[in-house]
Amino acid sequence: MLTRRRVSAPAVRPPACLAVLWVAAVLMAPAWAGTEVDSIAAPPGVRPGDAANGRAIVVDRQRALCLLCHSGPFPEAGQQGSLAPSLAGAGQRWNAGQLRLRITDGRRLKPDSIMPSYGVIDPAPQVARRYRGQAILSPQQIEDVVAFLSTLRD
To answer: Greater confidence, 107 or 13?
Structure first.
């Protein structure tokens, strides 16, 4: 006959637990988390962005889908979105680091944003199987888009 016996967890002092959690949080957090930083630097090893490639990514309805929500100075693109700010003048409103953060992980600035975090790997189960484990855009593609948006000054 099996008998049940209650097993209690070993007693751990709260200060030790808190210290371990704090160290883990500090080691795992990005360097700029919890600060008022609204921009990020280009990742190491990424070439300076190519504005022509960036423009092609922005207007491509298969890669980034920017024009689903945004509009801008893109006469060749028929329908353009109206859910998000126009991209016209983006280079005047934000510097390269600010644009990079908004594209890479805009939810750092606005957690309830509907804009995808193009440089973050989304572990959500609704991501199609073939796209799991990868970001929407590579760091180089993000640099290209940043270079292009930086040229939009009007």
So the answer is: 107
Q: How many domains does the chain have?
A: 1
Q: Is residue 125 part of a domain?
A: yes
Per-residue tokens: 85:
């700010």
The CATH number of the domain holding residue 128 is 1.10.760.10
Q: pLDDT category, 32, cuts 50, 70, 90?
A: very low
List helix spans (H) across 35-95. Answer: 51-59, 66-69, 90-93
| pLDDT one-digit tens code per residue, 88-117 | 999 999 999 999 999 999 999 999 988 889
Do 135 and 63 meet the contact criterion of CB atoms below 8 Å apart?
Answer: no
What is the token pair recorded at 89?
């003048």
Across 33-51, b (16+ Cβ under 10 Å) vs e yields eeeeeeebebeeeeeebbb
Q: Would you say residue 81 lies in a domain?
A: yes
Residue-number span of the structural domain to which 133 is assigned: 49-151
Q: What angle do CA 134, 71, 37 make, to 5 degrees?
A: 55
Q: CA-to-CA distance for 44 and 10, rounded, in angstroms?
A: 45
Does 42 fall in a domain? no
